[in-house]
Design brief:
9 helices; 30% strand; disordered N terminus; mainly beta; 44 strands
Length: 826
């Protein structure tokens, strides 16, 4: 890369004497040729060739730093310094100087060796910056500054920079209980979007006093997983845009007390319609357009045509084997192919064809179905199914089914009543619970397209649906946790091998039909020896038949709708709350957060879930701090049906027993509890290449006496980089031991990067393609407070550190940038 201020014209040359009559080029011509080739010097071979030529020129003139063109007029002097040895993703500064007794007519900075970089003029004259390129080993970059005076005399100065592979580039921050988002020195935090912010023209600003309405056109509550989709200046899909895009964010739940003026109300067991509709609309997901200004600040565009809310009332369609099944029939959808809405959307996924995958997690509790009266009206198989999924509430989480709507034809509230009440399934909503628990695909670029529920991926408490690495000719895989104690890890393998051209198709949901509507759903079995198998959940395979005594499966649609039951009979390994999955973009290894498990006991341990202990001041027994497990598919092939595994890191306080609890040797710089969110940096920048950066977010109740929830950054190794450990558990009068596989201690390759405000969860993370802007979700700050006494005042506290004590907290998305413009985390 070359940067110049003017074209360089050489003047008098005392070596250019008319005595050689051959056609060979003169020195002056060679110099001009050298400079005319500057734009070609963009790769290592060309740059090095140029450097050799330039050195020969200087030696011929008798001075490696200054070239004099006149006996009385001194040549200019030149200098070039760098900010020193660095690592991939960091900002490097080149500082140049050029002086002369006459004006300097031009200064040229040329890269003469190493991977090409983009030189950007800095505020200081003749100085430039660039982002250190991604390298896998120490690599030298060479640069030359050439200064020319008005007489054509030239001086050059050379400098080099050694770039090392990606490395964590910040000091760990301490745990704290402050009511702000805290990040390391050298970073800045700004608030991008918040609960209640209007996302349509004419919608008034959020009052934040409980009086606001119309959440169908406002950002919802409890923002969870998010993803950034790039937009071009023309408003079309652009996966490389770092300045304009769409953020799709889940809205998992609500903090009910803050949504109403004096908290929620109920009269005679009946909820008011206005309160209920507000609460319903605050669920779902949002799509908002965001832009970066020239000064680097980010904001969202209130009146963008892309802005969209998808709520529990939004029309949806069912795709895949379950669409049209008899157990999908309702009064709203007699043929079982259409539905309304999505709810309790937690973690997420994405597709390379540009769509978003949102996942329905703790949906069962929203339904009213008292077992005491309803079980008798069901078949034994129906009762087994509903109980296994937890559809057994007397009123439902927020009592929405109790609403008496002003319009008697309105069934938006009635659908939450899953009791048998009509003559058939098409006369009531007994089957409505089967409309939830799915992976839902949406096209963020096309608000006119209804979301599609992809039933081939199974029904459960979907925490997320993260894709494995896509390889041409290989059937893609998606990894999913089922977020509840003692549930399972699943994998869906498409029936269709990947075709690269499908990534740029314009009918994106049609591409989703191709890859997500047919395939095989598997569940993970973790063996004690560090191996594992993917058990297929296919009707007629093994115990998954109509003759099964636990549950008589009728067909493949029944298997998918009751994936938990199919996994039960297939011998799947019961895990300590499987939550987010993440896939290393270089190795393809799969990481899974196991947040915690209060029901784990010393006599129910296994190799993949080896701890049950007491973490004071609590007196309860269980895996209170959680861990992160990882697996490597056999042959590094996501189609494989076997794998190896180990535990990357155990959550723990640094003060807990190092032999049986703090097995990863965590310190005050990186101790944590209850890992939840999990994400690797994008492969488009240094955080997703060579040694990808892993971000870990917590949702914790065990460590909150020492710190608010947090986010850590790590450079993990690979499955098998540690060894075996025997873990002895002695708690609650029970004893047990397990031999497990544990990864190498993370040490300084795991550091605390962020601590959130009071009573929040840190959840949701993505970046721009260049990795220089990080978007992070802050969910339910102050969730334990009341409208009269909020538990937090954030985000109003972020700018100044304080706010009136009565200020209600709001879930929000923050933007984190590095003050020098480098890649976040490195």
């Amino acid at each position: 890369m070359t940067h110049d201020t003017t074209d360089l014209a050489l003047g008098y040359d005392d070596g250019d004497i008319d005595t050689n009559r051959t056609a060979n080029p003169s020195l002056n011509e060679l110099a001009h040729a050298m400079l005319s080739r500057r734009q070609a010097m963009r790769n290592g071979a060309g740059a090095m060739a140029m450097a050799v030529f330039s050195s020969s020129l200087l030696t011929a003139c008798g001075d490696n730093n200054n070239i004099s063109r006149g006996p009385t007029d001194p040549a200019p002097t030149a200098g070039l310094t760098t900010s020193g040895t660095t690592s991939s993703g960091r900002v490097v500064t080149l500082t140049g100087t050029a002086t002369d007794n006459n004006p300097v007519s031009s200064v040229v900075v040329t890269q003469t060796g190493g991977p090409a970089v983009n030189l950007i003029p800095a505020a200081t004259p003749n100085s430039f910056t660039f982002i250190a390129p991604v390298v896998s080993a120490a690599t030298t970059l060479n640069f030359r500054l050439t200064a020319t005076d008005t007489a054509g005399q030239v001086a050059v100065a050379d400098a080099s920079v050694t770039v090392n592979p990606p490395a964590l580039g910040f000091n760990a921050i301490p745990k704290n209980l402050n009511d702000v988002v805290t990040v390391p020195t050298g970073y800045s935090v700004t608030v991008l979007s918040r609960l209640g912010d209007p996302i349509a023209a004419g919608v008034p600003a959020f009052a934040n006093d409980g009086s606001d309405t119309n959440f169908a056109q406002r950002i919802g509550d409890h923002g969870d997983a998010l993803y950034y989709y790039g937009l071009s200046a023309a408003g079309t899909r652009d996966d490389n845009s770092n300045t304009r895009g769409l953020i799709v964010q889940n809205h998992e739940n609500i903090t009910q007390t803050y949504l109403h003026i004096n908290g929620p109300t109920t009269t005679g067991g009946v909820r008011p319609e206005a309160e209920a509709i507000k609460e319903i609309e605050a669920h779902g997901l949002s799509v908002i357009e965001v832009t970066r200004a020239l000064n680097g600040g980010w904001s969202y565009v209130q009146a963008s045509n892309f802005n969209r809310r998808i709520t529990p009332n939004t029309p949806t369609v069912f795709n895949g084997p379950v669409a049209g099944a008899s157990f999908m029939q309702t009064a709203f959808s007699p043929d079982g192919t259409r539905g309304r809405g999505t709810i309790n959307n937690c973690a997420n996924g994405y597709t390379p064809w540009g769509t978003n995958l949102t996942c329905e997690e703790n949906w069962a509790g929203y339904f009213r179905r008292p077992r005491a009266t309803d079980d008798a009206l069901r078949t034994p198989a129906q009762v087994t199914s509903l109980v296994r999924y937890g559809v057994a509430s007397n009123t439902g989480n927020y009592g929405w089914s109790t609403v008496t709507p002003a319009d008697p034809a309105n069934t938006l509230f009635r659908k939450w009543d899953a009791r048998v009440s009509g003559a058939s399934a098409t006369a009531d909503f007994r089957n409505e619970p089967y409309h939830y628990g799915w992976v839902v695909e949406t096209d963020p670029y096309d608000p006119s397209q209804a979301p599609r529920k992809r039933t081939a991926l199974g029904r459960m408490n979907h925490e997320g649906c993260w894709p494995g690495n896509f390889v041409v000719g290989r059937r893609p895989a998606f990894y999913m946790g089922d977020d509840a104690q003692n549930e399972y890890l699943y994998k869906f393998v498409s029936a269709t091998p990947w075709v690269a051209a499908d990534a740029t198709a314009t009918n994106r949901l049609a591409i989703g039909d191709r890859y997500l509507d047919q395939g095989t759903l598997y569940v993970a079995v973790f063996n004690a020896d560090g191996t594992g198998q993917w058990a297929p959940l296919v009707f007629g395979t093994g115990p998954i038949t109509a003759a099964n005594t636990t549950y008589p499966f009728a067909n493949q649609a029944d298997v998918l709708a009751n994936a938990r039951l199919a996994a039960d009979v297939s011998g799947a390994t019961r895990m300590d709350r499987p939550e987010w999955t993440a896939v290393n973009p270089v190795t393809g290894e799969v990481y899974l957060t196991l947040t915690n498990n209060s029901s784990r006991r010393p006599n129910t341990l296994d190799a993949a879930n080896p701890r049950a202990y007491v973490d004071p001041p609590s007196t309860t027994v269980g895996n209170r701090n959680g861990h992160i497990i990882r697996l490597r598919e056999t042959g590094d092939n996501s189609e494989a049906t076997t794998f190896t595994w180990d535990i990357y890191v155990f959550g723990s306080g640094s003060d807990l027993d190092a032999t049986n609890i703090n097995l990863s040797g965590l310190t005050a710089d990186n101790d944590f509890s209850s890992p939840d969110g999990l994400w690797f940096g994008r492969a488009t920048n240094a955080t997703g290449q060579v040694t990808p950066l892993l971000w870990i977010q917590t949702d914790d109740g065990a460590f909150t006496d020492q710190t608010n929830n947090q986010m850590l950054a790590a450079l993990p190794g690979r499955v098998g980089d540690g060894g075996t450990r025997v873990v002895n558990n002695n708690a609650g009068g029970l004893t047990g031991s397990a031999t497990t596989r544990i990864g190498a201690a993370p040490g300084t390759q795991l550091r605390r990067f962020l601590v959130g405000p009071r009573q929040c969860e840190i959840t949701g993370i993505d970046s721009t393609p260049d990795g220089r802007t990080l978007f992070v979700g802050i969910q339910h700050p102050g969730e334990d407070g009341t409208f009269a006494a909020p538990g937090s005042n954030w985000p109003a506290t972020q700018a100044t550190g304080s706010a009136p004590a009565s200020t209600r907290p709001r879930s929000a998305v923050v933007v984190i940038t590095k003050n020098d413009g480098g890649v976040v985390g490195l």
